[in-house]
Amino acid sequence: MWQRSALNRSLSDHPVGKDPQAMRTGQRQNKGMRTRLGCLSHKSDSCSDFTAILPDKPNRALKRLSTEEATRWADSFDVLLSHKYGVAAFRAFLKTEFSEENLEFWLACEEFKKTRSTAKLVSKAHRIFEEFVDVQAPREVNIDFQTREATRKNMQEPSLTCFDQAQGKVHSLMEKDSYPRFLRSKMYLDLLSQSQRRLS
């Protein structure tokens, strides 16, 4: 949820000069990035330019992304989640499988744990529950009945650990299911190939 907002901002925060020619150039670049991202969101095998999945300025980001770093994503699922470019690539892959809500929920829980204000903690907890956990939630994650009900009870007195059980279930699901497919996907293999070409 918050990561998506950050990604949207990164698509529009490119420095552009004030003269008309520079503005037109910046608009064309911005449109191109949006087109590539939209393409990735639907068909991972139909795009050859994978810089669109990277946060910040894509060309510069890809230059900083070494083949060694991208290769380390295969070491473990947690290594992938600890790398912002890895998260961006995995999110783009999940979009092709229409299951990005699992990652978005996990990220929302990670952000939630940083909450310091008690008032904000309660409101954030209910927002996350209604968005991802409740039955027929807009972006309902795939968890068992017992976990869902246990999380519902936690909403009576929300704490920083109230989503731990549900987050753990979703983490395990992604690790055993989506993550292995991501490592075999054309998207990941092409990203490795592009990083090798750009750094050679």
Automatic annotation (TrEMBL):
Any one Gene Ontology BP term: negative regulation of signal transduction
Keyword check for Cell membrane: yes
Segments of this protein annotated with the region Disordered: 1-33
Topological relation to the membrane, as annotated: Peripheral membrane protein
Stretch forming the signal peptide: none
GO molecular function, one term: GTPase activity
A Pfam family recorded for this sequence: RGS
An example Gene Ontology CC term for this record: nucleus
Domain RGS: from-to ranges: 76-192
Gene3D superfamilies per UniProt: 1.10.196.10, Regulator of G-protein Signalling 4, domain 2
Residue ranges, compositional bias (Polar residues): 1-10
UniProt entry tagged with the keyword Nucleotide-binding: no
UniProt keywords, alphabetically: Cell membrane, Cell projection, Membrane, Nucleus, Signal transduction inhibitor
Protein name: Regulator of G-protein signaling 8
